[in-house]
Design a protein that fits this description.
A two-stranded antiparallel sheet has the order 1-2. It contains 3 helices and 2 strands, in the order ααββα. It is mostly helical.
Amino acid sequence: MNLKEVAIQLNMRLQKIFTADQNGNRPVHGRFQDFYRHDENKDLILFHEYFHGETGIGLGASHQTGWTGLIAALIQEVNEVAKGNV
């Protein structure tokens, strides 16, 4: 892999913390999956200060987006690369 491919892989792994699986579960929600299965809550995603290194469960404050606020930019970047615009 070259450096660009490594960056894309890291970006996609970070996005998986927030992405719903085939059952609608997101690692960031941890043990609170039932709350997020309700239609009115299914698209609510909290951006925590910290994340569990193995499970991706959000930890720490969720009202301070901190560095995780950049996930939107990372999603956009991967989509641009996929479209060949970068």
